[in-house]
Design brief:
With about 100 residues, the protein is an all-alpha fold. It contains four helices and no strands. The radius of gyration is 17 Å and the shape is elongated.
Amino acid sequence: METTIVTQALSYVMPLLVLAALAVLLAKTGSPWLIAALAFEALSLLCRIALNFGASELLRSALFMNVWQLFGLLFAVCLLGFAVTWPSHTPARKASS
């Protein structure tokens, strides 16, 4: 029983750390990609919270589960968009000879 509580608590820690990391990056860069990524990660966290309050009904809802997965996918796309468009200030690493 204690393991379940720890596991459940850790399932909330990870998204909160991701949100904090996104907020720090957003403060440093001001990227619109990060604004969108932050929003989708927050929506995904809200889905996780909603799952705890309406677990039996939501687990049976294909729409809810698909929306939750869509939020995760959109978060990843926004994070990739940020990574691709972020200007690199350091030269590319050369392979060691």
